[in-house]
Every structure is written in C-alpha cells, then in structure tokens.
User: Fold this.
Amino acid sequence: MIELRNDAKYALVIPTSMGTRLTPVDHQPFHCSDTFKMQATSAESNVGSVSSFLGLPVKILTAFVKDSPIARFIKDDLARRHMDYEGPEFEQATPWGVRHQINMADSGWGSRGPRVQNDRAGEVGRLLSVKDFDLDRIFRDEGAKIVHMSGLIAALSEETSQFCLEIARAAKKHGARIAFDLNHRASFWVGREDELSAAFKEIASLSDILIGNEEDFQLCLDIQGPEAGGKDIGAKVDGFKEMIGRVKKEYADTTLFATTLREVESANSHMWGAIVSHGTEFTVVEPREIGVLDRIGGGDGFVGGLLYGVLNGWDVEKSTQFGWATGALAATMLTDYGQPADEDQVWSIWQGNARVKR
Assistant:
C-alpha cells in the first residue's frame, strides 16, 4: 500500500507533549468526586500504543521536568507500554515554573456526556525544539518507518508548530513517511488562525497519511465538508467521500486519507464507522453499534490500528477494519489508549465475537 523504509530501527517515531489524565472512579462527574485514577497520556502516544503492545518498536520524542515525580511516573508508564523515549529535561526553577499538563476527564455515563478540561499552564512540552534532538541520528542513522504527529502538538505553541514542521522535513528527507491527524482544538487556535493554518497546510503537504473528521478538514485546511455534529452519520457517507475528494485535489501527493464516523446515542453506546481512501478506491465501514466504557481516545485507537496495518503491509480494507476494531477496543478501556493482547483479540472485535475465550 505504502512503501516503507526497510532498514529503520523504529516502526513509529512520535513527537508529543506527555502529561497526566485524572479521571473520577466509578464514572462520577469530576466536580463532585474525591477519588481519581491517574494515567500518563497524550493524543500522539495513544496512537503508538497499538503498535507497541503488538510488538513493534516505537519511540517518543518529548520533554520532561527535571527531578519531577510526575516525569518519573510518565517515564515508567512509557516503559510499561514498551516504548523508547528521549527528550530534554527542563528545570522547574521556581514553584511557578514548568510542569506536565493535567487532563481532567469526566468520562460520562448514560445520558450524561463526557466533559474534558485541559490544564496546560506552564506545560513543559510547549518548549519542544529540534535543537534539543539529534535529527540526523534519529532519522538518518536509527530511522523511522512512519513519523506520526497530530494537531494537538502542532498547535500547542509557536515553538511546537516549528518543531513539528522541522521534524516532518527532516524525517521526510531520510525516507520516513509522515502521518498527520489534524485534531483541531478551537481553544489552541484563538488569535493564531493565520499562523496555524499556514503551518498545518505545510505539514499536510508533507504527509503521506492524512486523518481528520469533518470539522478538522474544514477548520485546519479550509476544505469544505459535511455539517459537523454526527447526527444520522450513516446518511452522510457520500458527503464525507466528496470532502475527501476535495482534500485529494489539494494534497495530490498524499497517499492515504482517513476519517472516523461517530454518532453518539448515549455515553455508553455509539455508532462507530470509518472511511479510508487510497487511490480512486474508498473503503467504508458502515457505522455499527459499539459499547463504550470511556470514549476518550477512540479516534487515536483507530489511527493506531490503521498505522499498524500500514506498517505490516496490509491492504487498505484490512488496515481499515483493524483500525475500526482498535478504536472500538480503546472505548472498552479506562485508559485513553488501546492495549491489545494480540491481533486475535482485535479481529474478534471486528467479527462481533464477544464470547468468552478460555
């Protein structure tokens, strides 16, 4: 499907800003809870978890707060997820200095939808710069088959926008493929629309794999698409195809285009589908009902499975099906990333086989 560098040390190299997520226990609202679970997280590392848990080598490029117990927690978590990592360590300097971001997540239940608030004041990842990484070693000597980045790290600060652009240029120069999940966040774009639009369009022009929903393509790349919102999503498939057709004309050098389809019936029941385009062909997974324990990270789970298929040389249909199933898998977990036990578990989800396996 996509020719990949065959001598690369890493299947995936992922630039990101790592932080923590706090979630109330027992699906309670955040504002009236007193007991929380904490996990290490980022949208981009969520994607890498599918491949890392299935045995492919993944490397995270990030930044840490020196001597911080939270930084230690994040490093230990990445190691548990079978991921290598590297990045600069910044002194906190004062109690008002840098820190790792906090994602406060009420995962919702039934008729109460999820609510997420990000506390990113002083986030150490905003300081990421290529001057702190040896790009020739990482991308020429070690090598990456795919570099995955998203619109969250790309829009985090002026510095990270430039960081992502320079990572994409260096990786491309040394034979890596670029996957870009647009991941528009309105609060990141306020007052920076022109700057971020230019940066996102350049990253998209360098991308081999471009992922986004209807809002992402419209707000990040100025590509007209169907009405946002997810209502009666199955009837909008043709509109999504037309949108992807317009994206293809604008980014003719990109090989693979993907979008997820989600219609929320309740916090615990979604209609879940996907569309992937390669060449003149479309692979469509019509929306199917899935049970949802925690929806956060489902889209990242889809991208992770899709990229795992590309890394294994699967065709578009098989890769799309696997991505649909890893997205559905992530929605059954309290972590915001999928942790597949093996490929068989993922294919059982695709087949709708939830029988006990002994």
About this structure: The radius of gyration is 19 Å.
